[in-house]
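Ligand: EPZ. Inputs:
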Amino acid sequence: MREPGRSSDLLEILGPAELSGRVAVSGAKNAALPALAASLLLPGKLELSGVPQLADVETACRLLERLGSEVTRSGDRILCSTPEDLPGEEAPLELVRRMRASVLVLGPLLARRGQARVPLPGGCAIGARPIDQHLAGLEALGAEIRLEHGWVEARAPRLRGTRFRFGIETVTGTENLVMAAVLAEGTTVLERAAREPEVVNLVELLRSAGARIEGEGTDEIRIEGVPELRPVGQHRILPDRIEAGTFLIAAALAGTSVRVEGIRSQDLESVLLALHDAGLEVETGPDAVAIGRRGPLRPRDVVTAPHPGFPTDLQAQWMVLMSQAGGTSTVVETIFEHRFGHVAELARLGASIEVAGPRARVQGPRRLQGAEVCATDLRASAALVLAGLVAEGRTTVEGLHHLDRGYADLEGKLASLGARIRRISTPARHEGLLTTGGSGL
Ligand code: EPZ
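Predicted complex:
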């Protein structure tokens, strides 16, 4: 796996591009992370296949090793084995800071060891992202939770089944509580549970280990606690619907005819409908979607929502598409409070977007011109790459450490469709100053 991008790497894109051909998506980051956390619950070895080679997956593997698991990685396979008496119960701060999804070890550690110590994950560029729902749910299951000096100290000799209603749909909150409940005494019912396909994929893994769960994919999940789980042979990580959606939007922007393979179209219904309404020809097959232009791009409003609504992780990419549509469209972000970091950078390329609170109005069509831009978060970085595909001239995108957390070789996959894109490793800018005796910045 390529080392995660250094923060001084940048992508150079020469536009406008014309994309055609076929591209296969990798496994879903947001399914791999909970599956890795679930390995803490399982005796024996767990082999995961279809795991994307990403910085966040690397971080999750290091976290498991720090907790005492043995992890071996080869290509898209990861083998984890957790010793009977799991020695670790503390997630190190530096790993949680790097990846807030580390909070997913809380439920498994509590269920397996009866205690856990995890730093409170700080907020990030897209919002405060509290974990109050995770903690309230664990307390409802009988855990004693103390917050001290920025750490979550959780103890529970034995978790007891309960009925818990989330105050907001939370994907990792649902995953954490499902994992905590599988070994609890009695039955747990989670109301207003997240319905994302990644939650369903986690439940499939746990069920293959003997967990008794029903209702995944709906807003009510019922878990009947069992005394122990059994080893699982192999579990396949589901394909990444957000990476797939990113490629579909790239094809809508710059494609003549592109086929995105290895995706389950049912996981992207809201996006496929929006693409159709925006004037694209969308042809769905059992595990692929083909997309082509059938006329001028039309403006199409979107409002992000929990699954099966329009995914917040495709909001930035959609905004780029709407900058090319013939008219004004509105994009409303209802999940995160600060997820418009890409707007200012898109404006540098020539996009015309007005933001008022959670609402962005995108004027189109706008001719984009290549420029130097900088990513602020994972999906913003993907949106800037897409904008570079349609902008005239040279665009460089900095901040690739964001991109490398969630996309495996995005530039290679786009190049295989005909994009003129390459990664340039540049010495970190300030190094020049230091070596030439310049004043520190
Ligand atoms: C998951 O994050 C994904 N990450 C995110 O993907 C995705 O954007 C998000 O779900 C929404 O779909 C993983 O699955 C690892 P939430 P998660 O808990 O679970 C609030 C990407 O780009 N909330 O569903 O952390 C929260 O502040 C990443 O791949 C609480 O208030 O998101 C947010 O406003 C980014 N209290 C909303 O709920 C809580 O206890 C949804 O958050 C938990 C969440």
